[in-house]
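Dear all,

This email documents one entry for the complex benchmark we are building for the journal club exercise. For each entry we list the sequence lines for every component of the assembly. Then comes the predicted three-dimensional structure of the complex as a token string, followed by one or two observations. Please use this as the template for your own entries, and keep the labels exactly as they appear.
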Amino acid sequence: MSNSMYVAASGSIIQEKRMEIIANNLANVNAVGFKRDRCAFQVPNPEDEARAAETTVQTGLLAKQPFETYTDYNQGPLHATGNPLDLALSGDGFFVVKTPDGEKYTRSGNFVLDAEKNLVTQDGHQVVGQGGPIVVDGAQVTIDETGAVIINGKRAGALKIVDFPKPYALQKDGGGLFKKADDQPEPIAAADVTVNQGFVEGSNINPILEMTEMIETVRGYESYQRIIQFLGEINAKAANEVGRIG
Amino acid sequence: MIRSLWTAASGMQAQTIQIDIIANNLANVNTSGFKRSRADFQDLLYESLRQPGAASSASTQVPTGIQVGHGTRMVAAQKIFQQGDYQHTQNELDLAIEGEGFFQITQPNGEVAYTRTGAFKLDSEGRIVTSDGFVMEPPLTIPIDSLSVSVGTDGTVSVIQSGQAAGTDVGTIQLARFVNPAGLKSIGRNLFMPTASSGDATIGNPGADSFGTLSQGYLEMSNVSVVDEMVNMITAQRAYEINSKAIQAADEMLQMANGVKR
């Protein structure tokens, strides 16, 4: 049997994965601080191909997955909410939150208070300040552009805002959180970022781009299916017509 | 493939809830003391098909890996306790709070609930009650022969009775305050109940700390902004639509896969 059929099959599997990523972007079109994922395709190195061909071609192609995902960390639009505990970052940086499995990073600044007046995320994870948790005890809360927290006119701490060397090697962890792998570089203090009180950062999804990519994915998938069908017909001809006698 | 169907379905479900919340906000656009809600969404767990940092050969590492998400979920319907506008009604039992406080209301089951709605009435015994007839806490009784009631900014209630020139004090309205009002639970009828997240109520007189002062003859209107809700409705509807397109696309792809074998 021809190897092309397996190449087309692995191509359609990749388009399926791409569709899953687009569907996830679209599902999160209204999620605060969401950063969209994108697929990158690699052109396989011909030398690697030749080496792979000598061994097990079919399984090699399928397992190789010549594509990867990466997250687009571009700024999302800021929406005014007027809620004093809604914070949006403009520029490169992340809020730090304390979770049961260590510090994680987020751009979702729609914070609330818990029963002890700590600033927490919607999931109840404490927002980390420069000297421990941020305690909001008072009626008037002002958070300035640098992240300093001023309560009833008195400075009561400052938010810890960090950045990472680019390109970011962060992984998404669900719930609007990002985590870093152990062997990744430690966070550094964010330099080029401002905090906007009374705003939330919307998802950075562009529906037009996602729709275009979705069309491309469906049509790409269709092409692979056509190739498989066509190869099937060739095989049928080879089996039924070429070998026919009389 | 099945995963994209479910992922897009989670997006549609989330938008459905958002429309529900917007519809409730709009339905209460004229409810005095109503506080609007906002739906907050988050992404779901990610499946790592290929770990970033995994070895791709003896000396090289995968730089970014492959992560596929599973959609979205609603994480909170947050009450926004922004101040509503004031409406001048001239009704002497209409009270508005300028500040963070809440009126305390005793429900028929004896539990105390909290409200921002100050449209009070009198019952047959002269007690100050809500429109549902629930008695204000602490209970205040207005004598039947009163000609007028006046409520000071500090909550003192005094009446002028027939045949008397000077006013008589009948008591003081006390307000409650919460550390985290967004943690309160709505129970309908404009009433809120405390939860572990809101903390217990602190009771105090109007004017002290940040309880707020009372204004007689005013009502606090709903803090729903119709324009904002309309914009939210448009984005929610379009987001719903775009997720349905993702389901259609996934369905088309499945159909093609089924068409391969004839």
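Observations: Chain B has two domains: 2-81+228-260, 86-220. Chain B touches chain A through 70 residues (CB under 8 Å).
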